[in-house]
Amino acid sequence: xxxxxxxxxxxxxxxxxxxxxxxxxxxxxxxxxxxxxxxxxxxxxxxxxxxxxxxxxxxxxxxxxxxxxxxxxxxxxxxxxxxxxxxxxxxxxxxxxxxxxxxxxxxxxxxxxxxxxxxxxxxxxxxxxxxxxxxxxxxxxxxxxxxxxxxxxxxxxxxxxxxxxxxxxxxxxxxxxxxxxxxxxxxxxxxxxxxxxxxxxxxxxxxxxxxxxxxxxxxxxxxxxxxxxxxxxxxxxxxxxxxxxxxxxxxxxxxxxxxxxxxxxxxxxxxxxxxxxxxxxxxxxxxxxxxxxxxxxxxxx
Length: 301
Known about the structure:
By secondary structure, this protein is α/β, with parallel strands linked by helices. Helix content is about 50%, strand content about 5%. The chain has twelve helices and five strands. The chain has a five-stranded mixed sheet. Strand 1 and strand 2 (about 55-60) form a beta hairpin. Helix 8 (about 215-220) runs antiparallel to helix 9.
């Protein structure tokens, strides 16, 4: 079993070494580990490195601006999370062209973020007609990407920003998972709810909020993927993309309720509850400070 590197070791990793460890874990919509297929030797030799102790990046030539902008955004969120909890590991991002993506034998189409392992995500290096078609299929239309300079047409850039909103969510989900905040029989879906609570709070407190708000994105994406009244307990790894997005939209709505009740102190309160309890939180613990979550849970997805 390959070990996830410590924060101290991250700065010494080369892009090739990052891939070697990432490929050993595999990809899944949840926290499982699905083995990936074989990768041809030399496929990732051309990757460049943007080192960092917190959010190291490996990127294909021609995507430095893309990698640097995404790193800056994720570091701002990471620093906000670090004010609430002790973070000992980084979150790696691989910025890939269609060629490297294909070599990953990825479970997601190019343009939709891919979780490679428990601490690594892969994103598209640039927009393509395929990434535009993908997000149009999910949302119906693409938002205007204002204030962002990147390679490609307006719609291609918009497809990158939409993916980046999901990557930010993945960073928060990863941190919550590492912190072991959620437990009990509902631990799987509760961990994602807490990830959204952390993400929604952090996004409101960083200097520049995400240009693509997550809740409207997920709500639109999930419009045709849910099923009225499906309980959170049915959440799991074996979900198609539409149903997975429906659940994520539901968790994002729960996070909005927590923000309305707890504001910027919500995450601190949750962390304090976790420390005092001395064990992972269960859903009933959240109902004391955030009673509106009961109706949210009962409403189903």
